[in-house]
Amino acid sequence: MTEHLDVFLHDDHIGVITPTRRDRRQVTFAIESTYAGAPSMLTEGFSLVPGTKADTRHASNFFGGYAPEGNHRIRLASTARIDESDLFALLKHYGLTMAGALSIRTEKPGDHVAGKYRPLSTREVIRKLEKAQRDFDLGNEPDSGRSMLPGFQPKLLLARFGEDWVYPENLAHSTHILKPSPSHRPATIFDEYFSHQIARHMGLTGFHSELITYNQTTFLSIERYDRIVEGNTVRPIHQEDAAQALGLDWTDSAAKFQNPEQPRSPSRPTAQRIAELFGSFGDGSDMETWLRHLLYNVIIGNHDAHAKNVSILHKTNEASTIADLYDAVPILNINDDPSRVGSKKIGDELSLAIGGEFNHHRVTLDHFRAEVASWGGLSGRRADSIIADTLSRFGVALEETPSVPGSSPALRDRLGYNLDRISSGRAIGKPKMPLIAWPKGN
């Protein structure tokens, strides 16, 4: 009998996964004949037709899209003694809890009973954080941890109730993502937190985050937007990222970026393709939010705003909607840091071109207008109104958001410089150093 895995959405059995014989990077997904949910409740990429098999390639890219990337995936696979490209094995070992409300379960009894939470001391949290940074294990423990989350960077998945940190065992869900400070760029988590504060002020992000220091170890704690916490009960909200919805190759780490050499390649994302995705459900306002996200990422200098850093929430009995802005990290300013003289430069290329322009320093509002015109879902007048409102909100948020000790030098000034340049219709360009304080006169 062929080995199989059961797929649950929340606690509803929706289908079965089996390995393919010819290619271990793919799996077969058969949809339960009694499935009675919405055809797109699992993904925007293919329909859940009861009693049928989903397209193998697209289903594989969808399920594989929940796996970590790069060295993170390699290390998890090594720990489980499996091949990092073996999708069935990855799902079997780490698919019990994933992003959103999807769960991949084996026949083990522990996969079908409620999980538990184990209290952690401050010392245990620090130890787990250090281990996650060193071993890329997400905090998984051999007997009770089978979780995974997309991304390259090391992180720790824990739950928090009040002020108490707890370890989620088996089917118990994490509520927070803990990011350690990377040794090669320690300011990164402080810069990201500053960005969180601005985005919250603008209404682009609703989740809570904070910088926490335990015994001289500082980390960024991020509340998961795909979890609802009621007392000590955690309920997941289902989600998928745009790379999954577009069916992009889960094994190719470059697939989430638009290709400058072949900008219209169907195997890669574009801002237009993602806009059309958001225009296909709800009342169409998510396309407007996507424009705000794009503009925000350009202003803060986030080169890494790729297709896996924008997601769709599938709320039960509600229309699908764009997720909160996340992983929006200021990067453009790093090359200007005097401490990096002689260091390898970080590229200036955007993950997704704006109006055909990939070079971050050259982007203007005219590029945004051209980009939106290609979508076909927003009038030029409405786009101009959204752009003006976003620029105004960013300016107010930047002025009113307190500086974050430990962040990159003159970060506020650099973001203010970017805002002033693009608001005036000019390209962001490269500022002369040192930067003039923003706002001028302060």
Condensed summary:
It comes from Arthrobacter gyeryongensis. The chain is an alpha+beta fold.
Features:
442 residues; alpha+beta; Phosphatidylinositol 3-kinase Catalytic Subunit, Chain A, Domain 5; 3 domains; 11 helices
Describe the 3D structure.
There is one protein chain. It is globular, with a radius of gyration of 22 Å. It has helices at residues 56-64, 70-80, 87-94, 122-135, 188-202, 242-245, 271-278, 285-300, 365-375, 380-400, 411-423, and strands spanning 5-9, 12-19, 27-31, 102-105, 116-119, 156-161, 164-169, 176-180, 209-214, 217-223, 227-230, 233-236, 238-241, 311-314, 321-322, 349-354, 357-359. It has 442 residues and is α+β, with helices and mostly antiparallel strands. It is 29% helix and 19% strand. The model has no long low-confidence stretch (mean pLDDT 93). The protein has eleven helices and 17 strands. Helix 7 packs across helix 9 (365-375) and helix 8 (285-300) crosses helix 10. The strands form five sheets. Strands 5-7-6-8-10-9 form a six-stranded antiparallel sheet, sandwiched between helices. A four-stranded antiparallel sheet has the order 3-2-1-4. It has three domains: 5-105, no CATH class; 115-230, Phosphorylase Kinase, domain 1 (2-Layer Sandwich), CATH 3.30.200; 233-249 and 262-423, Phosphatidylinositol 3-kinase Catalytic Subunit, Chain A, Domain 5, CATH 1.10.1070. InterPro entries: HipA-like_C, HipA_N1, HipA_Ser/Thr_kinase. It holds the Pfam family HipA_C. Residues 5-104 form the HipA N-terminal subdomain domain. Residues 149-393 form the HipA-like C-terminal domain. It comes from Arthrobacter gyeryongensis.
